[in-house]
Amino acid sequence: MTERWRLLALTGVLATIVYLLNLHPALNAACTLVIGGNTIWACFAGPRRTGAQPRRAWNLVGCAGIIFLVGIVIRPFVTEAGLPLLADCCTIPGYVLFSAFFVDLLRARQSLERHTILDGMIVCLAGGLASTLLLAVPAVNVADRPDLVSALAGLYPLFDVILLMLVLSLTFTARSWPPSLISMVIAMALLFVGDLGYAIIGAQGLLYTSPLLDAPLLLAYTAFGVTPIHPSAPEMGRPDRPPVPAWSGRRMVLLIPALATPFLLLVTIGDSTGHRIAIAVVGALIVALLLIRAIAAVRAQAAAQRLAEHQATHDALTGLPNRRMIATSIHRLLGKTPTGGPESTWVIVLGLDGFKYVNDSWGHDTGDRLVIEVGERLRACVHDEVPVAALGGDEFLVTAVGDRAVADRLVDDVRACFDKPFVVSDVELKISASVGIAHAGPEGEPEELMRDADTAMYQAKSGGPGNTTIFDVSMHDEVRERIELEVALRRALGDNDLWVAYQPLIDIETGRAIGAEALVRWTHPERGPISPAEFVPIAEDAGLIGMLGDWVRQEALRQLSAWRADGTVDDDFYLSINVSAKQLTEPNFPLVVSAELLEFKVPPRCVALEMTESVMVDNTGTSARTVFELRELGVKLLIDDFGTGFSGLGYLRRFPVTGVKIDRSFVIGLGADEEAGEIVRAIVAMSQALRLSVIAEGVETRPQRDTLASFGVTIGQGWLWGPAVAPADFATAWHAGGAAAQIAAAQIAAGQLTAGQLTAGQLTAAQTAAGSTERHR
């Protein structure tokens, strides 16, 4: 396609040169057909190959090319036969189609505005007046020729002026002129020159004199053909800068000559009454259109200013007041707050719980629609006089003046917004909100109040979803500590200061370790061990969870490869590694895992990836495709903390999972909570029906182990067999005879054995296995 436009241009120029030689009428017709045929082919085939849009516009210009070609071919013959009007009947519709083509492109470039239309009308009036008085009227006065034919001969330049004005309007929305646009401007200019030449001889009483008159038209036709076939053609339908302002210098280049035209004509040919009347009428119309244009421009400027002010004070997504505007409202409410009384200005900030998961699982479009729905429902739930604002992301703010009872009622109204699920993109989402509250008297500052309420909201989030917290000054220290932890965590990730602990997965019947779960650990250089329950949420909020997950997975695979090589574990031993919802939304995640398995020479069957139940809800998006591709690799797929989220047979059947891990909250309740036992029994029965493995987490006592075994659970994990320990300790405890030592350690913990009943080797292994006090997961 890159070379075809050059070939078309060269062919057009050569054919035009042959045409000018005027060797024979048939050869001239052949040259015209070659140029026309190439151009018509380019107009229809070019946009399909280059992807130029809108397609309808390019089809219109192709049809215009056909009509123009017919007019050019037949004009010499019908003129000689005394029927020149037939050629005009073929040519004029071509101008109409070309005008429609430019209008469609202007729409596509979002630049068909009111002042563009008014500019077109002004230029048309001025061009029409000049063409009529200078060309059409003299042509009509020619004897022995139909008046209509003479008038049309003089008006063709007007048609060209209209087209030239339209193509110049296209340039007003182009940061640069692509070759296709330059080609179209050249074509319009050549068309104007060619038609002007015909109009001039028409005013002298002639309709056709020499092939030289057709040269600009043939070259214009060639330039038409280059435009759609050039690789830059798609740029003509795409705006790459805002439209030129209504009163820009570039637009004045069109308007000033149009405004001057009536005065120049009045001076040069205004010697007859008819001419003066026509000039006066058209001049008055041009001035009227300029006034309308000026008024429209002023109104547009005022509307743009109002829009800019609204955008500066309102959230673009929800349309609610933003932080800047709500700060003004809070300042006003603080001024109304009585001094020394029980009333305060209350600021309530709420953040959506689990919003990050919604974005990760269903995409940001769904997240945006959820935020819009929450904003609309929040506005409907609170009283009309209560200001509501969107702070960006998933945070909202409401504020009011009153006593504590007023604040409590306002919180209740906010909570009521989340009683019913939100239906977004055909997905039913049941979400909650964490609420932070701050209050102050008339001496308070809006920014401080919003900051304090925001701090309280994050404190509420740290306690779990759906919490409400009132700010106190100690929270500033907690926020500072959280920020410091985030900075330290980033540094730890970069410096490899984290480490991975391994907790055994035990065959309940034999007591043998058949696998282990890889669990990230962090020993802070100053604070010592930090619980994953503390730093993992920080990683999620800071956008580090993907990096953290990748590091843990790579370190675990490296360790498993080493254990397999030195015989610490047998060939069927597998590692269970957690993956986040964020990682599962990455389309290339399966490729990354596959490459790592090859790098560390670990068979896929020796790796299990643990994901939460909530991932299964997204069974149509990227997460679902990723899960299926991971299973195709051959890795095991486990549902972690099963029973606490979206448990359901339907989800398990739709996903290629290989096993479930019963949440520790159900295991702890065995023996004391009858309902917990029934839930575990149901999970086991459902899993067995689907041929899924079942792993029980949090097993700490022999009665729990025995109950689980009676239900049919075959794999256990928990302190009964040992905590998560460092790689060296794990290898010592579970290498070869380590399984017996681990069982002995559990029996010592249960009081069934004493250290004196063990051999020295057994005692050492048991103490190693039971010596760690790390219980974090």
UniProtKB/TrEMBL annotation:
InterPro entries: Biofilm_reg_signaling, EAL_dom, EAL_sf, GGDEF_dom, Nucleotide_cyclase, Rev_trsase/Diguanyl_cyclase. The chain crosses the membrane at residues 5-21, 27-45, 57-78, 84-106, 118-140, 152-174, 181-201, 252-270, 276-296. Residues 482-738 form the EAL domain. Residues 343-473 form the GGDEF domain. It comes from the Bacteria. Pfam families: EAL (PF00563), GGDEF (PF00990). SMART domains: EAL, GGDEF. The keyword Transmembrane helix applies. Keywords: Membrane, Transmembrane, Transmembrane helix. NCBIfam families: GGDEF. This is Diguanylate cyclase (GGDEF)-like protein.
